[in-house]
Amino acid sequence: MQTRIAPQYRTDPSVHEAETILRDCVHCGFCNATCPTYRLLGDEQDGPRGRIYLIKALLAGERATERTRLHLDRCLGCRACETTCPSGVRYGRLLEIGRHLQNARLPRPPRAALERRLLRYVVTEPRRFRAALGLGQAFRPLLRGSLARSFPPLPAKSSYAASSVSTTHARRVLHLDGCVQSVATPATRAALARVLDRLEVALVSAPAAGCCGALSAHLDALDEAKALMRRNIDAWWPYLEEGAEAVLVSASGCGSIVKDYGYYLQDDPTYANKAKRVAELTYDPSEWLARELAARPTIGNAQGRIAFHAPCSLQHGQKLGGVVEGILARLGYQLSVIRDAELCCGSAGSYSLLQPQLATQLRRQKLASLQADRPQCIATANVGCQLYLAQEAVVPVLHWLELVDEALAKTSVPRNPDETRIELRDRAK
Ligand code: SF4
Ligand code: SF4
Q1: How is residue 245 annotated by DSSP?
Q2: How far apart are CA 288 and CA 284, in angstroms?
């Protein structure tokens, strides 16, 4: 795609990056087929190709309008279009640049800007998020329907401390406890700790680490996002130097961005190398466990029909489609076949709060697919999807690690026959 760059942008490196991305697009429109908003609205400008044209117009210096903002805001950032695109167009990055240009040229009205700032203020800090959730629970009897259901019960403060796992194994991996997951679904971390304990690996957390920065990055607050990334790198670095093998991120939305720390901080002379190293050592627990379990004889005879919802951040962001499903099947679970499995559930970070009508339609469609086979439960890999689906699902919605934990609890985990130490660092070299 030929692009004309407006004179005022000629020295802007992100605009040059956008231009390079645009060159790959051949306008074929294949991406529209898997775009959730195009499928819902049927409008070319609510599909990836149309949005690409809108961003191209911004780069050319054409007037930024509220109509452009509407179509860019309606994008989930799910990146299903990237998976479908035969030309490898990096749409996710293009969207981030396009939204930034749009907001710089035509700032949001004060109320909408305040709404986003408030969201970042509350969600990125666990204590504030806990307080907000507690407040929502207190007023829940006064709220109706879906609004009441959007405040899930507040779990007891970190169930991890009470779980009987050893932190003294020779092998250690770090875990990103994060912000929302540490408050709303602490059972996920507890399950992972027990699973790793059975494999004689200790799961440790760096107390100074916190939010991964994804929400800030997606809401066009890049400086704030980078500050959060640097904080996590500083918190993890001493552990990595002392031999922690990896950083496991059990919320796939967070994992997706931690794997991009090297990209975001590439121009920071102090953090560029460390960020690249952290990104190389970051894994979704599924890819880490798949390697660990592959070296052991078949394990588990779990029973039950499970519907697995692969979050967009797992299948499109991290390109790990099928990995969790492989682990669950190996443990004995029967997996439902999910129609339109590549489509987003509507959660998409803050999307369900900022675009509730579209998000609700997507969730309704997703739950119809997930529950069609009458599964005993729905499993997923990201806290946002888990909480959002659980609001309307008729069966429990869990993190898949809870199912692995349950399956391994019923059987003894065989030792790796060769006692081969699986050296994950090899991947990064
Ligand atoms: S599928 Fe790829 S190349 Fe084709 S229009 Fe979409 S982004 Fe462009
Ligand atoms: S990121 Fe998702 S919603 Fe946005 S254009 Fe791509 S497929 Fe459509």
Answers
A1: -
A2: 7
Q: Residue whose CA is closest, atom 8 of ligand 2?
A: 35
* Residue whose structure tokens are 């994060």: 178
Ligand of minimum distance to the alpha carbon of 35: 2
pLDDT, tens only, 376-416: 999 999 999 999 999 999 999 999 999 999 999 887 666 66
The ligand minimizing its distance to the Cα of 41 is 2
Banded pLDDT at 144 (limits 50, 70, 90): low
Domain that holds residue 81: 7-105
DSSP 377: E
Look up the CATH number of the domain holding residue 22: 1.10.1060.10
**CATH classification at residue 361:** 3.40.50.1860
Residue 421 has pLDDT above 70, yes or no: no
Which residue is associated with the tokens 């060159």?
23
Atom of ligand 1 nearest to the CA of 32: 6
- Domain termination site, one of 105, 129, 162: 105
Measure 74 CA to ligand 2 centroid, in angstroms: 9
The yes-or-no verdict on residue 425 having pLDDT over 60 is: no
Taking CA atoms only, the protein residue closest to ligand 2 atom 2 is 78
